[in-house]
Amino acid sequence: AQSVTQPDIHITVSEGASLELRCNYSYGATPYLFWYVQSPGQGLQLLLKYFSGDTLVQGIKGFEAEFKRSQSSFNLRKPSVHWSDAAEYFCAAYQAAGNKLTFGGGTRVLVKP
Amino acid sequence: KAGVTQTPRYLIKTRGQQVTLSCSPISGHRSVSWYQQTPGQGLQFLFEYFSETQRNKGNFPGRFSGRQFSNSRSEMNVSTLELGDSALYLCASSLEPGRSLDTGELFFGEGSRLTVL
Predict the structure, then answer these.
(1) Selected residue of B31, B33, B36, B37 to mutate for chain A interface (largest A Cβ count, 10 A)
(2) CA-CA distance, A53 to A50, in Å (whole number)?
(3) For labelling, which of A19, A56, A98, B56 has a CA lying 20 to 30 Å from the CA of B14?
């Protein structure tokens, strides 16, 4: 079955430290891949997306993600986190045949001062 | 350009009642999808509508239904509410799934938070 897995439920980082969130997908073919962020009480905002081509994708708010086909991974990174990055992050995969996004379980990021 | 608008933002119902949630997509978007978000189950796909037709449906009981109007606005309805229906219901719009212009990117509203007592 098609699935998206985010192994880390919670991550705590210090402000100014780097952040990496893991995402693995299980699909027959490479799907379109997305990272969304959700602040408390809000909807989901798209951070970045990967369709094809360059495996390093730049997004908004200083985030980037690297696609690795051999590992079926699409990890999200930020070199230096800000307190405002505290939120829940969702990795998602889309295939036109299914016509829907499949989300991972999310990773909640806490930022320590 | 206005984003996806969901109403109401918050509502409280009791078991056995029914509820209708509304979603206005981004202008020009013809596809509307609904997701249920709960702490235990995460984000789960409910259904997707395009040109007033339900094209895809998730694994939810028949108490969950929806429709789309000619102006692409969508409503979802939950009948005979149960405690477990308490959730954030998110609506998302996109261009035309499956067409070359569409990339699968969904634009989400802020959600309707339903509490069932």
Answers:
(1) B37
(2) 8
(3) B56
Displacement of CA B51 from its chain's centroid (Å) = 15
pLDDT digits (tens, 9 = 90+) for A2-41: 899 999 999 999 999 999 999 999 877 778 899 999 998 7
Of A36, A49, A99, the CB nearest to B48: A99
B49 pLDDT tier (thresholds 50, 70, 90): very high
SS3 A83: helix
Q: How many CB atoms lie within 10 A of CB B17?
A: 13
Q: For chain B, what percent of residues have pLDDT higher than 70?
A: 91
B8 upstream amide cis, omega within 30 of 0: yes
Task: List chain A residues with CB under 8 Å of B92.
Answer: 44, 101
Lookup: tokens for B18: 């029914």
For tokens 């509508």, what's the residue? B49
CB neighbours of residue A13 within 10 Å: 18
The bridge status of strand A107-112 relative to strand A10-14 is parallel
